[in-house]
Amino acid sequence: MEPLAQKLRPKTLDEFIGQVHLVGPDKPLRVAIEKKHVFSFILWGPPGVGKTTLARIYAESINADYYELSAVSAGKDDIRKLVETGGELFGPKVLFLDEIHRFNKAQQDYLLPYVEKGKLILIGATTENPSFEVIPALLSRCRVFVLNELTDDEMKEILSRTGYALSEDAMEWLVAIASGDARSALGVLSNTKELYGEISVENLKNAIQSKHLRYDKKGEEHYNTISAFIKSMRASQPDAALYYLARMVTSGEDPKFIARRMVIFASEDIGMKDPMALVVANEVFKAVEIIGMPEAGINLAHGVVYLAEAQKEKRAYEAYKMALHDAEKYGNLPIPMSIRNAPTKLMKDLGYGEGYERYTKKDLMPEELRDKKYLKDAEEK
User: Which of 145, 303, 313, 318 is the most buried (most CB within 10 A)?
Assistant: First the structure.
C-alpha cells in the first residue's frame, strides 16, 4: 500500500506547504523554478520538511531526467551507472542525493567532476551543516537553501489534507510530538488509523510505541543515548560505552556526529592526563570521513575503548572556562606593551614590543589580572 506521506506529496509549488522564505512570491527557489534556471543546490534542514518534494518539483520544472539515490547505501558505481544511463543526453540529468553528508570525502571527490562539467545537476539533501559535511570544492558549486521546521499551523494544514477525522486534542498532541516533521506525523497517523481505526490521543500514543519507528535525531532518545555514551566513557566503562555506540550506529545515527563528540570528550574529560587521546579521537574522525560505514564502526569502537580506559582530568577545560569568564567580565584589557606586535616604525616608537624577552618570567597578563593562575585554581577545585 502506498504510504500516506507519498500519497499526499505535493506535485506543484501551489500545493506545497511551508518554507515560504524559499518558495513564497519572488523568493529564490520559486523564482529558479519558474524561470527554469538550471543549477546545482543543497537543501539543508530537519527531516520531513519537504526536501525531496522540492527536488522533484524542481526537476519536473526543467524537464529533467530525475534520479534519486541515498548516500547511506549508494557509492561510486551508482554514480557512474547513472551518468552512463541513456547515452547522449538531450536534457539535464538531475541527481537527488539524500543524506549527502553520509558520502565520505573520496565519494564526494568522485562526484565533483560530473557536477563541474554539467553531466549531473546535483540536488543534495542533508540534516547536517553542509559547511562541515560537504567538501569545499563541491560546496562552492552549489547554492545552499536552508529549510526550517514546519510551524504548528503548517503541520495542521498538512494533517487536515488526509481526510482523517482528528479531534482537536489528537491534532494538538500529534503536532507537538512530531516537532515539525510532516513525514513522521503522517506515518504515526497512518499507523494509528490502520491499527485502531479511531484516531484519539490514546491510540496515537499506543501506535507510536512501535519499536520500528525511526530513531528521532532531535528527540529524547537521541539525547539520552549520546548522554549515556559520554557518561560511560567518563566513568571508564568501555563495555557500556561500546553498547551505546552500537545502539546509535544500528539506529542510523550519523557516525561523524559520534566522532565529533569523541574529539570534544578527549580534551574536555581526558585533557593533559593523556594528550594522545586527542590524537586518537581526531584520527577516528578522519577514518570515519575517509572510510565510511559500516567499516568505520571498527574505528569508532577502537577510539571508544581508548577514551574510556584513559585516565581522566578536566584541568585544562576548567582553566579555560575561568579564562573565558574573565575575558567576558573585563572585556579587552590593555595588553602589556612588551608583548604587543610592532610591525611599523611608529608602533615601535610608541613602545610596542619594547623590553620583550623571549623566555621572560615576568607575568604577561594584563595589569588587572596579574597573579591569576587558572590551571592552579582548576587543580584545587
Answer: 303
What would the mean pLDDT of 167-195 be, rounded to a whole number? Answer: 90
Rounded Cα distance, 92 and 118, in Å: 8
d(CA 270, CA 236) in angstroms, rounded, equals 11
Q: What is the DSSP letter of 363?
A: -
Parallel/antiparallel/unpaired status of strands 121-126 and 41-44: parallel
Is 1.10.8.60 the CATH number for 152-208? yes
Model pLDDT for residues 13-51, shown as the tens digit of each residue: 999 999 999 999 999 999 999 999 999 999 999 889 999
Gyration radius from the chain CA atoms: 27
- Cell (9 digits) for 115: 557536477
Give the integer Cα–Cα distance in Å for 31 and 41. Answer: 14
* Distant-in-sequence contacts of 238-243, Cβ < 8 A, 24+ apart: 238/304, 238/305, 238/308, 238/309, 241/304, 241/305, 241/307, 241/308, 242/301, 242/304, 242/305
* Assigned CATH topology for domain 220-309: Zinc Finger, Delta Prime; domain 3 (1.20.272)
CA 230-233-235 angle, to 5 degrees, is 110
Inform me whether the pLDDT recorded for 99 exceeds 60. yes
- The arithmetic mean of pLDDT across residues 143-163, rounded, is 94
Q: What is the average pLDDT across 364-380? A: 82
Backbone angles phi, psi at 57, to 5 degrees: -65, -40
